[in-house]
Amino acid sequence: MKDFLARWMPIDTSEHGGALDSMNALVHWLMAVLFVGWGLYFIYVLLRFRAKKSPRASYSGSTSQVSTWIEGGVILVEVILLVGFAIPAWARWVTPPSPGDNPLVVRVIAQQFAWNIHYAGADGIFGHTDIHLINEASNPIGLDRGDASAADDIVTINQLHLPVNRPVTVLLSSKDVIHSFGLPVMRVKQDAIPGQEIPIHFTATMTTPTEARFPGCAADKECWEIACAQLCGLGHYRMRGFLTIHEPDEFENWLIAEAPEPVEAEPQPAGLDASTAEAEASDHADHADHADHADHAEHMRAAG
Ligand SMILES: [Cu+2]
User: Fold this and answer.
1) Which fold has domain 101-263+276-303?
2) The whole model's pTM is what?
3) Rounded-to-integer distance, Cα 32 and Cα 110, Å
4) Which residues place a Cβ less than 5 A from the ion ligand 1?
5) CA 192 to ligand 1 center in whole angstroms
6) How does DSSP classify residue 213?
7) Can you give the residue ranges of every domain in the chain?
């Protein structure tokens, strides 16, 4: 059944995906058995209680205790499914990876109609964000660049880059309405709910193939898709991000390449000539809050 279902499924590139697909197959088998069982019972009842054979209704009904025992059996099976399978599976799903496994923590902030990705940078600490600092073009998550721990933070739009074989925790939130963060190849799907930060844990087991590039992906590799799986507004159809899984060293290089240049806090000398000021201004524009990504997002919006 698992192989049969796999024909309609995207490839599985996550550590937990196999178990999820097996459960999917198991549930399909259970549903198949129930479908056939109830279908046969329905046909039996149609024949057994047909009008020709029972012209008068029986007002006393069934006097046997069989149905009581069956109901008891159903309750027992459902308790076993809940306590023995569902609750342990849920507990595994919500347990964070151990710090010894060096998990990577990434914030994903959904908005109409884009995915903002926030990396903590070299210091491993997310900079302070403030709703009043949000600027849709230059600072979509309201990152406070004045905060010391924000200086090295990386913010991208619609571009999620992760290392292979390293546990990842995505802290998922939303700026406006309910979205759903779906990584089909990673067997991950979680609603993003305004006012909540929801952790999701997974580990990628495969890097993205290089043969072809997904349209709109800015990475050098083909990207897999981040799909918004919850109807979130008129632009929902184009709320698509791109997931790239790298080899660990490749991922570190990507982080270094994306890291913002340190901004000098020194006051400008009074006698600064015009050409130097211009050069400085353009330099700062290059290193501003990922203006290139904002451009890219604009392009994506326009393309959508
Ligand atoms: Cu959405």
Assistant:
1) Immunoglobulin-like (2.60.40)
2) 0.76
3) 38
4) 179, 228, 232, 239
5) 9
6) -
7) 1-57, 62-95, 101-263+276-303
